[in-house]
Amino acid sequence: MKVTNIEKLKEKILKSRDKTKTWVTVCGGTGCHAYGCLKVVRAFQEEIKRMDLADSVGVRTTGCHGFCERGPLVVIQPEGIFYQRVGVEDVPDIISETVVNKKIVERLLYQDPQTRQTIIHEHDVPFYSKQKRIIFGNNGLIDPTDIRDYIAVDGYQALSKVLFEMTAEEVIEEIKKSGLRGRGGAGFLTGLKWEICRRVSSPIKYLICNADEGDPGAYMDRSLLEGNPHSVIEGMIIGAYAIGATEGFIYVRMEYPLAVKNITLAIEQAREFGFLGKSILGSEFSFDLHVFKGAGAFVSGEETSLMASIEGQRAFPRQKPPFPAQKGLWGKPTNINNVETWANVPLIIKKGADWYSQIGTRTSKGTKIFSLVGKINNTGLVEVPMGITLREIIYEIGGGIKDNKKFKAVQTGGPSGGCIPAEMLDLPIDFDTLTKAGSMMGSGGMIVMDEDTCMVDVARYFLQFTQEESCGKCVPCRLGTRQLYEILTRITKGEGEEEDIKRLEELAKTVKAGSLCGLGQTAPNPVLTTLKYFRHEYEAHILRKECPALFCKDLIIYYIEPERCVGCLLCLKNCPVGAISGERKKVHVIHQELCVKCGACYEVCPPKVKAVSKYTGRKKQTILKKEKKAKE
Amino acid sequence: MRIVINGQSIEATPDKTILEIARENDIYIPSLCDHPLLEPFAGCRLCLVEVKGRKGLMPSCAIFPEEGMEVITESPKLKKMRRNILELILTEHPNACLICQEKENCDEFKSTIRKVGEVTGCVLCPNNGRCELQKVVEYIGLKKVSYPSSYRNEEIKRFDPFFERNNNLCILCGRCVRVCQEVRGSGVLTFVSRGPETVIGTVLDKSLIEVGCQFCGACVDVCPTGALEEKGRKYELLPDQEIKGHCALCGVGCKAVYELRQNRLIGLGPVLDSFNQGQFCVRGRFVLREIVDSSHRIKYPYRRRGKKLEEVSWEEALTEIAEVLSHYQGEEIACLSNPGLSLENIFAFFKFARDVLKTKTVYSPSVYSSLATWQALGLTSASEVLNNLHHYKEILIFGTDLSVSHPVYWVKIVQAIQQGTSLQIIDFFPGTGKRWAAQRVTLSPLTGDYLLAEVTYQLLLKKRERESLSEEEKRLVSQLEQSNYQENLSPEERSTASQMAERLVQAAPRVFLVGERLAVGENREEVLKLLWNLARLSGSEVVVLPPESNTQGELAVAHSLGMSLQPFSRLLDFMAQQKVKVVFTVSGMVLPPQFKPELVIVLDSHWSKTAREADFVLPATTFLEDEGVFINAAARVQFFHQILPPQSEARPEWMILTDLAEKMIKTFGWKRIAGLRKELKQEVKSLGKASFKKISQGEIFTLKRRESPAGLLEINLPAKPLSPLEDQEGKVWLVLSPSPDQYRSFPLSEASKGLALFRNHRWVYFNRKDLDALRLREGMEINLISTWGKIKALVKASPDLPSHTAYMGICWGEAREFNPASWLWQTDSMIIPIKVKRGR
To answer: What is the CATH number of domain B241-292?
Structure first.
């Protein structure tokens, strides 16, 4: 079926749908998948069949709703009743109570951990109410495997507008006016990027969607491709029209099987409906898209190595200039944008640049999706307007730190970003403020850390990641990151030397300034920011051989406080190496020379008793000395 | 445009990088990954510079000048950066010697032997003194490495021939990977793993032989450290003398620089600033050294005493030869020449045959070359276009694996393809270069001429649709229509022909390169005529490649002296008539078993079966021990300087022949080579205005192409093709063609074990299906039996060979029991029906 009039099609789709029908929407995002949402979906289908409700009730598996902490999520539409942590056993209740009798199943409602209030509707949940879900919102409404759902929510209307009402220049002008900046990390102005590529004359130009999301803990691009693939495709077709591209690629990593499946299906459907291929929507414009599966190297997210990978070569970046707009894929002018950037495009066209540029700060417009992970109550994907403060994200949307611990820092931008300390919680987030703070927007990873996190170890963790993922082409990145990692490892082991801080700083500078591509140029950021904001922790590790967060194994001991121990044998039984001795009702002792510091005793000691403590530094030494003396 | 480097205003061109411009102006910027042959890599980051107005530091090897650009190559910041980066490089590379306090004393006083398993410092490194890393360390003045070493500690890969790979010395500049891919088009080396684990390796860590390496040595030549090191070179020190010369192991004639130490050849490499642009092949790079200094060399004159050859003095040998030779004359003496000799020596030999021995006939392998047949047909080869292959939009290679027969021309073709030229390979034997071909046509050796005839016919038909045909074209159409060749073609072959014709009818600058494998049967002439016609009809140039280093020269000399070159089958006729009694040969050319001449005199550089059975053996020099002129495939007259002193008592042929003539009391010969050259120039008219002196000083002189008189040639196709041998068990057609791996008929793999591992002259190729049908396995020794006797060979599989066809390359001087060439004394065809029998 080749569509020529999108408005009519939408009406037709809406007309064919029974408006009185109740829809049970189940989140089918990756997080909920892990919780077993597919079983829930099947249970719903069976239950509806059993109750013979198929005419009045439908089940829809949607994309990610974002509130992954509470999955599997179920929303009953059109009322918007929000159930969380739904299991297969809850399904009959939901059907019989909510769907048939229009009653609420109280036990499945979300309870605000702070106010202890139960909340019925999705939009009232604080996690959602503070967000501005202009990109991500449709995820929860549509079935990503059915193009009709997307069209029903005004999908492909922006494309129609562009093809029949706007020239390519006008499209670029609109995007420029909106102030949209690339969501992939560097934040280059999208409109300007398009304009540069448009100006290069070439019969063949390529368009690429960078979906090689590889930051640890980040999954927003994945969720967009899984949950709303057509928004990305529509954005790309509009971009192709503006730039004059003939062919496009979506570079998605192999480890995202659902994203691959959904985007591939979406492309097929778009082709079938005439949104892709020859003379799109009956216009003179032709464009087609292909999915390219990457093998999962982090460096492939760098645009030049991504192109090398599509060309079938090893994913090595190359020196820029020439930029992809001049010499890109197979030497042809190429425009690369990130998934989220592309998803923003239809929205800007549909609602206008003026509307869009109202959202956000002076230099950064629109919203940004962050993946909020780490030591936070509400893990999930959040979409917020630029300029929102860290405090709002972490405490209001994120629901604060787990177990009421103290907030210490947040790492933004993944391994390329930096750690922002508690003092800067009121920092309004946009591209420039983050860069100024020594971190970066990156693709939007946000890892929250509490007081138990050792900042040296955090830097070590990220450097381990970057050194492993360095492509090996340039010396500073390949060997510099390894040396950084090794120095950091040394420090966390208590083998740090006084010059190590200076050495770290100097090496970090070399790697930053000397590396070929973005990976190496940003790899030292975690070291530099932790050195900037948490220097005292480094000094504690090196000078006093102590880990203030009581995290680094080599610098701490586990110790049973004799005055608190009740002799319950719990730790003794759980110690994997038999390092604890003691008898029932008698004080237990940890033999330090046998202890492997797994922390099992610390975990199992009943909270009422809390006899196992961790010590570092001077206190550790005193205890060790005391024990030694006692032995003698 | 003008740019400013370090405050100095410099004229620049936009096609050169800042690094190149700086070097041209004597501004040193350290760099380890850049190489003039390769695309910018920007990996080592040592060449970072500051560019005014640009953010951050830029690698000068990857940026190009812009008007008014200001570049700073030296600043405290850069210095610090380079030092730091170099320190990082040295964490992986053994560095003890580089930063040792005793370095200076050690360099001066301590020499070392390098028979160590592991290189832990420069003094133990085979590349000591030639290492680019050493130079950079010296320039930067590094005295300390502040990071702990992270030595890779990998096992050295010694299992491949010619060179070993020591990843512990590798600095991952990627030059080897890039030269293999970008320049040679092979891509056998690659980066493996990522992060600090990254190393250079092969797919699945296989050996180089397994992954199809041709051992051209380009990777070894570009390696800045000792990571890739020639095996034989390892224990040698630095050369005390470097001489520029050429290689004469094929028709390309690459320029080489020979490294000598105490008059001994310790190494050689290609010259960057030359036609071959720093490229070589396995023959020149590795095998040449093995055959020059080899136990197979003939070192002294020998005379037969009963069953034994005994060493004698030159005086004795020559006197005796003169004496016996005086009993024979004219056609009684068969003179066997060879195209591997210099023009002077060929000239001397031919003239000796004509004036002293009074014979008008010389027998030479050159007769079997396509070039000889081509010239006999009165056609000329557009040889000089080989220098400009990149000008052609389409290149068609007929019947040769250019990457083996003329490797450096193959390199040029790979470069041309990368610039948009399209390649077609028309052959029956799948070569290593096949993946570069836009189209491949498998030509059955049995019906190849019919297929080419069909291409001609289709081409003419397509032409007729566009324009009216000329008279001769019309004649050709009717001629082709009358012969019933079409019924011998399969429908697939006809559609292939139609496709080929479709491409040929498009106008494009196009060149045909013709090798030895196509025109092998009795229809040799017809095939070449068909090719000529196709070229005429499609407006293409044709180059017929000479198989050996001086085939062009030998043919020219024979022509000028009015001598007739004859195939060996002709000799057999004379033998049958008891006319031939003496063989006088300058190569180890095999003699058939039934041939028992009264006297055999061998004048050669290497031992052969023929030499071992001869009555007199005289040691000749190789081209490295004598100066001389060679005419290469592109018709360039090249002067080969003398590089080495003659081995033991070896002498150049012209000298030996002069002395021999003197003993025979004949007026013949020359006191000095200059005299010979003067005469040579007078006699060989095609040399024209060539000045040997100027050529020896580096002037490039190309022989002028004769006008080709012929229009379209008449075709006389044989009515019946060679019948397939399908019904007869164990019978196949054996197709022969001269192997490029020989030096004056001495098989190179005889002296080079390395070469024998991947290109053995004793291999006979079958396709896999035939192997199964014949119940043979790879590596098996089998007997090939023809009407004229049997030979032994080793089985090798070749996937795409046509069925019921076997293929074998001939080395003329190979021992009789392995040499199919001995059959060529009885037949002129190189397609021979044989029976295969499992050996032992």
So the answer is: 2.20.25.90
